[in-house]
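Field reference: sequence -> structure
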Amino acid sequence: MGDQWRPPLSDTLSAGILTFDIDGRSPDALVSSLRALKVITSVAPYATPHVRLTPSIRNSSAEVEEVLRIVRSFA
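Structure field:
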């Protein structure tokens, strides 16, 4: 599968912010589709835009797993 997770390469810059692409889907369209399912994402303002997802310590493991299930359903 050509889907790409795009975390920062440097350990000093890596955090709980995930950026990713799904082949055949624009970041804007994917963000819109995910928001319709109550998954809050945004388009990262990089030279090449990617979908950005930022889980936090307030999210349960079950919530993270559900978001992953939803994101995978778009692949």
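Note: The chain has a mean pLDDT of 85.
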